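Section 5.1 Outputs to date
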Amino acid sequence: MMNYYNYFTEIEEHFVRRRGKHLLISPMDWSLIAAWRDTGIPLQVAIRGIDIAMDGFHARQQSNSKVNSLCYCHDSVMTEYASHLESRVGESSEPLKAPDGGETGPEKEEEPAGAASLEYIRERMDEIKALSAKQCLESTIEGTGRVLARLDEVCRSLEKGEHIDAEALERDLTIIDEILVTELRKSISPEQMLEWEKEAKKKLKVYRKRLPKETYERIRGNFMRDKIHRSFNIGELSIFRL
């Protein structure tokens, strides 16, 4: 079974190959992949949906035009997922047993490199500490202090060298990142936030046309969080940024 990180990279690499343009996908497309995974779409179903969408695109195109966003494949992926669910109606939800008594179903998630995760988190902590020391962030010192305390707990857990549940680690980092962004946002002017909102509306126009409102709002939220992180030169708290 693909681990939590490889779900993203496998889809990215496959889409890049199919569109024939060797550029990595955008952070917004990564947010779309996250939405697919949270929905429970298996990797091979997502790959099949991408293939169907790209086959259709190439069959219709007579020029050298390219698909610029993974969003183009969303409808096909969701259609394939619906077919996948329909084909499994009536199946037992219990995993099949292998001859040795083990499960033949999904295996336990592979953990990311503990040392790399630990180093990455400590780098983010150093960035937060440096920023908290600046006078302009006096109003957020208490909040960033809570963030640092939570990250310190994560680091201590990683230092023990125990099995790392990639999904659990990513969930913890996501929650901590939300707290951090909320605190940093207090130091951003309403005018600046409005400017970013306008930029998001313009750049995410294609997503708004093709995606359900809930999925679009999630991607828009990720866009705004990225702007806040970049504004303070603090990397996002996510194992996908390793």
